Amino acid sequence: MNDAVSGSGLVLPGVLAALFACSLAPIFWPAAVAVRRRPTLPRRGLFVFVVAALCHGTLGVLAALIVLPVSALLVYVVPQVEAAGAHSGEPIASIARLVAEYWWIAYGPALVVLAGTMTRWLAARWTRIVSAMAS
C-alpha cells in the first residue's frame, strides 16, 4: 500500500496542516476581532498587520533564545562529555536533542496562544495608539 495513504503516512501531513492552520491564527483572529468589535477598531488593516508582526517576531526571538544555546550545547559540550566517557550528562543531552529536533511542534500552539493574548491586549489599547500616531 502507498505510504501517503496508509495510517503512518498521514501523520506528518496532518501535523503540517495543523501547523499551517496555526500559523494563520495571527491573521484571522485579529481580523475577526477588528470586523466584529463594536465600535469598530480604526485602521483595521494596520491592526491585523501589527498583531501578526508582534506574534511572529516574539516567537522568532523566543525560538532563537531557546534553540541557539541548545544547539551550541549539542555541538560543543555534549561531544566532549561523551568523548571523556562521562555518562552524567546523558539526561541533559537527551533533553537537548529532543528540544533541538522537535521545537517546531510547539511553535504552532504557542502562536495561537500568543495571537489571542496579543489581540486582546492590543485591541483594548488600539484606539489610543492610533490617535497617538495621528497627532
From TrEMBL:
<keyword id="KW-0472">Membrane</keyword>
<feature type="transmembrane region" description="Helical">
    <location>
        <begin position="102"/>
        <end position="123"/>
    </location>
</feature>
<keyword id="KW-0812">Transmembrane</keyword>
<keyword id="KW-1133">Transmembrane helix</keyword>
<feature type="transmembrane region" description="Helical">
    <location>
        <begin position="12"/>
        <end position="35"/>
    </location>
</feature>
<protein>
    <submittedName>
        <fullName>Uncharacterized protein</fullName>
    </submittedName>
</protein>
<feature type="transmembrane region" description="Helical">
    <location>
        <begin position="47"/>
        <end position="78"/>
    </location>
</feature>
